Amino acid sequence: MTTTPLEITGTRVLPIRRFWMTDELVRMCVVAFGTLAVALGLAFNYYAHPFPWLGAMLLLLVAAATRVFGIPLPGKGFASFAVGPGVAAIIALDWAGGSLVAAFGIILGDAIFRRLPIRNAVSNAGHFLTAGSIAGYCYYGLMSGQLGLAAFSANNAWRLGFMIALYMVTANATFYLQLKLSPAIAWVDPKLTARWEGTVAVLATLLALGSLQLAYSQASPRAMIAGALVLTLVAVLMHWLVRQAAVGESLLLVQRLTTAISARPELHLALNDIQRLTRSLVPWEQMGIAAYDPERNEFVVVVDTSPDYPVGRRISATDGIVGSAISAGHAITDLALPRGQRPTEISQRSQIVLPLMYGDRLAGIWTVRHSRIEMYRGHDAGLLEYVAPQLALSLSLDKLIQPVVAASADMTSHVESITATTQQLHASAQEGAETARRLAATVRELADTLSRGAEGARNAQVIADTTVAEGQVTQQSGSQMLADARVVRGATEQARAQLTAAAAVVQKGADQVSRLRDISEAVQTFGQTITELADQTGLLALNAAVEAARAGVHGRGFAVVAREIRELADRSATEAEGMDKAVRDIRATLDRAVTLMQRTRGEVLSVAESSAAWVDELDRIVLASEQVAAAGHRIVDTARESAGRSGMMSRALTEAKDEATRAASETGAVAGASIQQEGAIDSLNGAATELSATAQTLAAAVAAVRAGR
């Protein structure tokens, strides 16, 4: 595999690229190319003769100073006036000597004054070395540009302008290629960086050209000193203006971040905005916020993007870089500590630690971390320092709001539970009271029913005697029904056999009609043949008429015969068409007849099958008739037993009536007690409703705090 589908830095998904396309490759290429080009240039004497050592040292110091007084931009961008000394060195020292002096000045400024790692300083110098080699060679080697004071002549102006433009474009192109591929600066705003680097490059070039013009002029020492002071003041003013404008850009980004934090006072709601907008200020890979516990003098992790710092983990407030930041009282980076005091984790990553102060009280810490060593500078910590007060306020509010939110949620849950329980009790009480009332009424109705039941039992004895006589009649009817069912069954079986024979006759008729249809097809074919013969005869008659016309007077008789033959052919074709139409009608009629007969056969067979089902039903009727006859015997016996039991039931129901009357009076007392219980539950339900309203008021207050009202 030579490609990866996605590259992820933090939460940003970068475009697909080859595995070997890295910022390290760009870094090595520019350094190697610039070094080789300058070595070849020096070998071929592309430097000023004699070499002005004093001027070269001055340009080297100016190049180093431009790195010291560079303009830091948000997101690790950096704009410096190094383009100016680079252009001036090429004009004054030729392209090989000038590029080498400018590169050494940049290494000196980055390594000693900016405290960058030596590899980063060499990489920055490599960009200028490559740009100077390409632009300088094109200027001197290809376009025959002038050196020193002659470079400012009118006929050399376009060459000089081309060299300066090529120098700027080449340096920025390689810088931006490395910027695109580097994870350390993957969050730089390209438009902001390009705008300020372009502005600084143009101003630096103008200052460099003015300084060279002054150095090559024949003015008096006093005039040169005055001119140098003016250029110095202009340089200082330009640097101050650009730096203030860049600070303004940074403050606008800070304002966006603080506005996002202020809009959502609860920290966990604003966390996504904090993480997203912080990348516009400084690049980061991990971020964490911890609250301060004054009782134990420790920090408790509230949220962290790294799994190494789970929520609730405690961090000492006195050890390592955290303790140093608390002692200093402001944001610090690992580079701000003396080497002997730097914590051991510096060898693994770079970080910024910001104490979050809410007034004079320590609220927590905010840490921003990156895996690249010596990633962060003091300017990065200063930018985040602007955000720290608002983040401290958000953390303090979060600590205050969260218990209220939790209590409100618990109270709401409890109130809902109490309300649901009281509603259930109220419903149960109502149901119990209603049940008691219904039970009392039921018991009274039961007493009346028992009274009526005793009377009914006496009547049942009379009915049982009557049932004995009717059961004997039922027995006789069942025997007669059994005989009739057997007769119907025999007739149905005979009808079924006749229907099956009729279906066979219908099938034979359908076969005969199908044969008639085949004969009609032959007749139709014969008619088509006659039509074809008529067409051919007409064609022959036409040919004969043509030949008779050619024969003139001798062919008149033959022409008459040809005309008669043609008319006969036309009539034959007409009759053949009529016959074909009639045959088609006959075929259609025969088709319908076949279809109708097939349908008739299907219906006859269906009736025959239904007759078979009727036979089965009649068998069941015969069986049922036998069972009815047997039931008649049982009815007579059962009715005799019912007459004896009805007398016993009448006596038992009379006794039950007396017991039900006593139960009705006791159930009335239970109903009264249920009504009293229902009133008590209504009072409890009202208290739960008031508690629910209080919980809603508390929730509204919490929502108002969340909204910042």
Which helices and strands, and how do they pair?
Layout (H helix, E strand, L loop, with lengths): L2 E2 L2 E3 L2 E3 L2 E2 L4 H21 L9 H16 L2 E3 L3 E3 L3 H31 L4 H25 L14 H25 L8 H27 L4 H43 L3 H12 L7 E8 L4 E7 L9 E3 L3 H9 L3 E2 L16 E9 L2 E10 L7 H174 L4 H152 L2
Antiparallel strand pairs: 1-4, 2-3, 5-6, 7-8, 7-12, 8-9, 10-11, 11-12
Description:
The protein is α+β, with helices and mostly antiparallel strands. It has 3 domains: about 20-260, no CATH class; about 265-400, 2-Layer Sandwich (Beta-Lactamase), CATH 3.30.450; about 405-705, Helix Hairpins, CATH 1.10.287. The protein is built from 11 helices and 12 strands. It has helices at about 25-45, 55-70, 85-115, 120-140, 155-180, 190-215, 220-265, 265-280, 320-330, 380-550, 555-705, and strands spanning about 5, 5-10, 10-15, 15-20, 70-75, 75-80, 285-295, 300-305, 315, 330-335, 350-360, 360-370. The strands form 4 sheets. Strands 9-8-7-12-11-10 form a 6-stranded antiparallel sheet. Strands 1-4 form a two-stranded antiparallel ribbon. Strand 5 and strand 6 form a beta hairpin. Helix 1 runs antiparallel to helix 5 and helix 7 packs antiparallel against helix 8 (about 265-280). It is flat, with a radius of gyration of 57 Å.
